[in-house]
Design brief:
Blueprint: E1 3-6, H1 16-25, E2 31-36, H2 48-55, E3 62-67, H3 75-81, E4 85-89, H4 96-105, E5 109-114, E6 132-136, H5 151-165, E7 170-174, H6 182-188, E8 192-195, H7 197-200, H8 205-235
Parallel strand pairs: 1-8, 2-3, 3-4, 4-5, 5-6, 6-7, 7-8
Helix pairs in contact: 1-8, 2-3, 6-8
Bound molecules: D-xylitol-5-phosphate and zinc ion.
Length: about 240
Amino acid sequence: MVQLLPSILSADFSRLAEEIHAAERGGGTVIHIDIMDGHFVPNITVGPPVVASLRNVTERPLDCHLMIENPDRFVEEFARAGANWLGVHYEACRHLHRSLQLIAQNGMEPGVVINPATRVDLLIDILPMVHHVLVMTVNPGFGGQKFIDFSLDKIRRLAELRAELGLNFQIEVDGGVAHDTIGAVVQAGADLLVAGSAVYDSGDPERAARGLLEAAREAESRRNTQNFHRARAAAI
Ligand code: DX5
Ligand code: ZN
């Protein structure tokens, strides 16, 4: 079933616990935390101490999206802080295979993240190692940007590869996920939907999260019906 991941980047940082709880009441099941270092992306956010504090206020998995250079240096620290999923950028890892191994060795679910300009097919060899592939649908660094349309082809390609290779990683999408895009993203094959401004800019994160999740679930049931008919037609 598709899941909604509230991204706290657009939340009120002075009230993070309340903001997280509101999105949880609206159906958010995994908390997405954006870690930026001012080098890999032109913005700075939070690090392990904030992750450790948030660990104390929610039982939900914490999905840490590292937008930092040389992420291997911080893997152990994020594990100690209580991160559950750790996603590293393909573009930031000189030895991606090693980074993913390190994350798994530290007891977290490894994820790989690709920028809009990075091709999905570059990931083929490491797909069996990952828990999730995060397709950036905006250039990373800021909330509230416009969804890049060609990303839908990348999501479709990933779903196709997953089926071809018989794998079961999750497909996560981040950037510009809102009412006008969430249906298409789910139709294309996404499972994990990160939403920042669409949840928090409304002033009522509980209601906004609920609305997004409803739209996503409707698209998911359409997708399942289509897949069922396709499989049946192929079997005849
Ligand atoms: C951007 C971050 C996103 C951000 C998305 O670099 O990775 O998680 O919060 O924000 P929206 O949903 O507003 O595009
Ligand atoms: Zn993110």
